[in-house]
Every structure is written in structure tokens, then in C-alpha cells.
Design a protein that fits this description.
The structure is a homodimer. By secondary structure, chain A is an alpha/beta fold. Helix content of chain A is about 35%, strand content about 20%. Chain A contains 9 helices and 9 strands. The first copy, chain A, has a 6-stranded mixed beta sheet. A 3-stranded parallel beta sheet of chain A has the order 7-8-9, sandwiched between helices. In chain A, strand 2 and strand 3 form a beta hairpin. In chain A, helix 2 packs parallel to helix 9 and helix 6 packs parallel to helix 8. Chain A is globular. The two termini of chain A are about 30 Å apart. Chains A and B meet through strand 1 and helix 9 of A and strand 1 and helix 9 of B.
């Protein structure tokens, strides 16, 4: 693991690191904020999965999470959104290929074998971080924005016991029925739609739900509402009687200004679960 | 004035606007955050001047100020750092020309007549903002980062009565004695150094000081310490018995992570003066 940078931030350290990933077969870059408390022992960790076109960097510099994570004594991990580099497949559209891994393990050429973002976020990167930093691996939570909200919700439900709490900002809630999903699932997982439902937050909620609290915020002025389909997730939450808070926030759009505006509440939500 | 974007942010509105400026003779773009309170009447305003290479956008998306300004009911203005566009002179180095206006009115070709950033920030842009938004023009304060910290301190002292409080993050404190200053003052103001001292925070402090509180933070790990020369300003503050808080913050560097880490305290500092 190579240290790209380490910067003092809210009395903790905002680091950027690079490492070879077995899952993706590429070099990967991630951000990690460690609060001051980590100098005295392991701390909980909140994973932040980013949206389309983002790298590890966008949320790290725009979401304003370090302030609240420092206050709560929680680490923050910012993975990249896809593999990158020589030999990695891409598409000319912004929502497939680079910056658009959708947090699944691709089974189809040319995306396999590099686009293994579920394995990367669930196995590879946690292994690396747990080995190198003072993290309490029994206290993990996950959140994300847009495609990263989809990632947080689906990975959280697909890996029971891993995360204590799930939250999402403007998540893609029903990719099987959305142009932010159908194209990508066809590309990464193949045309058989039965394989898709295991990566659709609304289908997963209907099928199994989550053993812990969920918080979902979407801006009522989000111009991507028809792509996000939060109502489908709400319906599944109600049918399952899942512990959840689902909110539409008047006036807010899809931007990081929206994410930053509700970050304090999301981190307080996770802190309650992580410190319980 | 043209609305580039208006985005809901911490219950207020983060706007970006474009307008023709008489001072610079160019189109200028600026950011303005208006807190929710502005719907009910005029609010105070805090000006944030940015550093080398920045546009209006960097601090707006990276400094995390809206959170605290919303809490305090204060507007935030983010001017650009230089004129831009067709016919505007530039230099190949990052610290002269575009993105490097140094908040002075240039007297020398080819920088005059466009590089009139003092007139822009002190006259043109305030006139526009006061005419179009609910701002209490008697309640203004100013801050900035690096070159923008130099701008905040020098404009604050050069225009007594305009601002109630001054603060700065890692400001250039003594440009007459710094490579972040001598080259630019030669270019914009000419080789006669007697013209420079009216734009040097340490010289202005020695000469006249400021009728109000000052807060200056610099990271103790700032790799530009020799260019910033905060000690020269501290010496002048002491000699004048100026009301001031001057801090070196252990571990912090020159980045926006440093700025964001102390933003809450700077806005609280200004709020106390603005609401007095």
C-alpha cells in the first residue's frame, strides 16, 4: 500500500492510498479519514460509496462528512467507483464503465474480470484497511450517494451481519426498472433479468430486508426522480415492516449540496448504531 | 445579472451568478449563499476571498462554510480571483494573471485595465449584490484563504468602516517580502515599492490597524510558511496593540481540509461581530 497523501483534518487524518487489488486486478485508490480517537485504539468505520462519474475524491472533498465523523469518533472510507487503468474496458457514455461500476461483480466480457466492485468493497479493501489501520471490524456501517446509495443498500442487504446500519442519499432504488440500471446490469451481469434482482434494493428489500435501521433521503426537486424510483423502495419497506426512515426533502436536488446538508443527521444515525 | 444555478443547501440557497463588471470590463462569475432567514429580511454577509488558481467555486464546494453560515443566519459571497475571458492578459505561471488577481487594482500594462480586483470586490460586486439580494449592508465581514487571506486583511484595513471583523486562513501576510507578492506587485503596481506597502497586511497593520477584531489561523505544517510570513503580521499586531487572535494550528497544512477544520470557529467569530 502506497501513501498518496496524509492531511490533518478536523484533528484527524484524511489520507489517500493506492494499492494493487486482487479483486479488480488493477491499482486502486481510496480515501480514508481516521479520527483522532484512532490513536488510542480501534474505531468504528462508515463506508461512503460514491455515484456515477466520481472517484474516491469527490465525496472526500465535497460531502463535509469529516466534521461529523471527527465529532463521533468514526473513520470514513471512500472507495473508487470502478477499476481504472491500462486494459480496463470502458464505454463512451458516462454511466457505464469507468466511474460506473455499480458495485457488482461483472460476469460478462469485456467487463469481467476487472469490474469486480462488490468483491473489492466487501472483501479486498476491508481486508487492506483492517490490516493497516485501527478499525473495529465489528462496528461497520455504510452509506452512499446515487449509484453509491444503490451500492450501500444492496451490499448492506446482500451481506447480513456486516453492517449495523444503512443509509443513502438519493439512491438508485430500483435499477431493474431504470435507465440507471438496466443498461448496466445487461452489460455487467448479462441479459437474464433473474440475475439482476439480487442487486436491486427494492427487490432485496422484498426478498430479505435488513436486520438494523435504514435511513434514506431524497431531494424532492431531484431531476432524476424517475431514475431513482424511491417510491418502489418505500413500498417494499412498508410490505416488509422494515425499520426505516424514508424522507423526501423539499427543495433539494441531486447535488453534493444536498448530501452535505443532511450529512450531520446521517452520521448521527450511524453513530447511534455503531456505538450501541 | 444571469442566474447560472440556484441549489437548495442547508435550508438556504447556494447560487452562482454571472454579470458584466464595470470594474474589470469583463463578465464575472460569483457564488452567493443566502440563508433561509433572508426570506424574512436582510441578513449580514461574510465575504470569502479565495487563493491562487481558484475560481468562485473552490471554497463554495470545499470549505464547508454554508453549514455554519446557515446556523448563524449569514450570507456568504464567493468572488472569483481574477478577471477572465477574451482579451484578458495572462502569464504562464500559476501565480500571476488568471486566478491570481491579488485583490489590487493594476496600474501597469498589460494587466490594467482588466485586473481591477479591489474595485470589483469593494465596489462593483457589493453594489450588484446589495441591489439584488436581501443583505444588510451595515453588517459585513471578510475572510479568505492564502492570497484571499491577504485580500481579506488588506481590503479590511484599506476600507475602514466597511467590515466589522476580519479573519484569514493561512494568509499571505507580508507580500512585499515574499515570492508570493513581489513578482505580482511588480507586475500589477510597477517596480516602485513605495506603492506596494498599501497592499501589504503587515505594513497596513503597522500603519493603521483595524477598528475591530481579527482572527488569523495558519497550519503549523504549512509548507508555504516562508511565503506566508505570519510572524511579520504578529509582530505588527503586537506593536499596534491590535485586538487579534493569531494561531498556529499543529499538524495542519495549506489545504481546504485545514480551512474546513476551522470554518466553524471563524464563522462563529464573525457572527459575534455581525450580530452585535
Amino acid at each position: 500500500m502506497e501513501v498518496v497523501s496524509e492531511t490533518c483534518c478536523f484533528d484527524g487524518v484524511q489520507g489517500v492510498y493506492r494499492h494493487p487489488s486482487k479483486a479488480t486486478g488493477t491499482e486502486m485508490t481510496f480515501g480514508l479519514f481516521m479520527p483522532q480517537e484512532a490513536q488510542h485504539g480501534p474505531v468504528p468505520i462508515l463506508w461512503f460509496l460514491s455515484g456515477l462519474t466520481c472517484t474516491h475524491e469527490n465525496a472526500m472533498i465535497k460531502a463535509g462528512a469529516q466534521c461529523w465523523a471527527a465529532e463521533a469518533g468514526i473513520a470514513l472510507a471512500y472507495p473508487d467507483t470502478s477499476p481504472r487503468g491500462h486494459g480496463v474496458a470502458d464505454d463512451e457514455s458516462y454511466d457505464l464503465g469507468l466511474g460506473a461500476g455499480f458495485y457488482v461483480d461483472a460476469t460478462q466480457a469485456p467487463w469481467a474480470p476487472h469490474f469486480m466492485m462488490e468483491s473489492y468493497v466487501i472483501r479486498d479493501l476491508p481486508d487492506l484497511i483492517m490490516s493497516n489501520f485501527q478499525i473495529d471490524e465489528d462496528r461497520q456501517a455504510i452509506t452512499g450517494h446515487s449509484m453509491g446509495g444503490h451500492g450501500a443498500l444492496t451490499l448492506g442487504m446482500r451481506h447480513p451481519g456486516r453492517f449495523r446500519s444503512l443509509s443513502a442519499f438519493a439512491p438508485i432504488c430500483n435499477p431493474m426498472a431504470s435507465d440507471w440500471g438496466r443498461k448496466q446490469m445487461t452489460a455487467y451481469l448479462g441479459p437474464d433479468e433473474t440475475a439482476w434482482s439480487a442487486h436491486d434494493a427494492s427487490a432485496l428489500m422484498a426478498d430479505r430486508g435488513f436486520d438494523g435501521p435504514i435511513l434514506v433521503d431524497t431531494g424532492a426537486a431531484d431531476s432524476n426522480m424517475d431514475l431513482l424510483r424511491p417510491e418502489t423502495l418505500a413500498q417494499a419497506i412498508a410490505a416488509r415492516r422494515q425499520q426505516a426512515t424514508w424522507r423526501l426533502q423539499p427543495g433539494y436536488d441531486h447535488s453534493y449540496f444536498f448530501v452535505a446538508s443532511f450529512m450531520e443527521e446521517h452520521i448521527a444515525f450511524h453513530a447511534e448504531a455503531l456505538w450501541a
